[in-house]
Design brief:
This protein has 385 residues and is an alpha+beta fold. Helices cover 32% and strands 16% of the residues.
């Protein structure tokens, strides 16, 4: 495998992104510094909070001007949190971060019928929600909806990954707002309701639970690392209890048990072995001689035709062509189901002196976005094995 070339690829990408990364870091630090204590919290501020974990979250959120009670001295921690309340807090978080303060100013050319209209208007204008995302802001908010709203309240660079979350038992790729839920888990803002990380996305959320999310959003230092216990399914046959790494550097894809696989699926012609277990990635690499294919274009065309017989509901993205250090590289992504496994695969094809090199990195679809930045590191690790 072309070790020198791949190292040059990584070095080039790193040099291009270093400057922008440092700028983002400076802006992020400046944004979080805008969250300053505004109100004094005493024992008399809210007299109806008994649980210490709620108090630990409500106190700083109140002091920063993000949360208030529903009446004098009463917070109502066990009452339901509404969509209107969620949007009002998310708007204030966004406004403070960008240096506009915690008071949302009304538009001069608009009239507001409801107290929350000004926050809905702000949230739409600043990309927190879209105009038709919700049709009733007075109803109780679901846990998944709150995750979505607060995951959009700040720029993506404000959600540094603190945890690698392999599997949330009740959140699949088709779960509404799954990307936002995983984003907050990996940032150390959410961790679920039990040791397995079960989230209950469709349940309503209480004001006390919402306060925990809000405090972690505004104060990154309070976010936490955790390791979720894997929830094995009863009466499940598991083909493997460990990651299999062959001598030629090929990883087998070992997927979470949530897909209810009952056996191992093997596709030797594609070097594909799929196990049901607690795992993330599969990495393949093959070198196709020029005696079989004269160039990468023909190889990619045939490969795309062949995989239609493996994936269900397949979606093959357009080729992305680029050159680095006079090396031609083609990337194309594939999504679809293999049996009942929802998979996302990155494909990298480039021509070397020895032949056409094809590297694949696959993972569960719900994890794909979180691993985009690590793909070249994974490839570099593979080629130096």
């Amino acid at each position: 495998m072309n070790t020198v070339f791949l190292k040059k690829v990584c070095a080039t990408l790193i040099s291009v992104t270093v400057l922008s990364t440092s700028v983002f870091a400076m802006e992020k630090e400046k944004g979080f510094q805008n969250f300053q204590e505004k109100y004094n919290f005493t024992d008399e501020t809210f007299t109806d909070i008994e649980a210490q974990w709620v108090l630990n979250a409500v106190k700083p959120a109140y002091e920063l001007g993000l949360l208030s009670g529903r009446e004098a001295g009463k917070f109502y921690p066990n009452s339901q949190f509404t969509l209107a309340e969620a949007l009002s807090v998310a708007s204030r978080i966004n406004s403070i971060y960008f240096g506009r303060g915690d008071e949302i100013k009304p538009s001069e050319d608009k009239e507001y019928e409801n107290w929350y209209d000004i926050y809905v208007d702000y949230a739409i204008e600043n990309g927190i929600i879209e105009k038709d995302t919700f049709d009733d802001y007075t109803r109780n908010a679901k846990r998944g909806e709150v995750a979505y709203i607060f995951a959009k309240s700040l720029p993506d660079e404000c959600f540094d990954r603190k945890n690698t979350v392999i599997n949330i038992p009740d959140v699949r790729s088709e779960t509404e707002y799954s990307d936002s839920i995983y984003k907050l888990y990996e940032a150390g803002i959410l961790s679920g309701k039990d040791e397995y990380g079960t989230f209950y996305a469709d349940d309503n959320i209480t004001r006390g639970e919402a306060a925990v999310i809000i405090s972690h959003i505004a104060m990154p230092d309070t976010r936490y690392n955790f390791n979720l216990k894997y929830k094995w399914l009863e009466n499940q046959n598991y083909a493997s209890k460990k990651m299999i790494i062959s001598s030629d550097g090929i990883f087998s894809l070992i997927v979470p048990a949530k897909w209810n696989m009952e056996s191992t699926f093997t596709y030797p012609e594609y070097n594909m072995e799929i196990y049901s277990e607690n795992g993330i990635l599969r990495i393949d690499s093959q070198l196709v001689p020029y005696s079989k294919y004269e160039n990468s274009e023909k190889y990619i065309e045939d490969y795309k035709n062949e995989i239609n017989g493996i994936y269900n509901n397949i979606d093959i993205f357009e080729n992305q062509n680029f050159n680095i250090n006079n090396e031609k590289v083609v990337r194309f992504d594939v999504t679809g189901y293999v049996q009942n496994i929802d998979i996302y695969t990155w494909n990298f094809v480039f021509e070397t002196t020895g032949g056409i090199n094809h590297i694949q990195v696959s993972c569960p679809y719900s994890k794909a976005k979180g691993y985009v930045d690590e793909v070249f590191d994974i490839i570099n690790t593979l080629q130096t094995r």
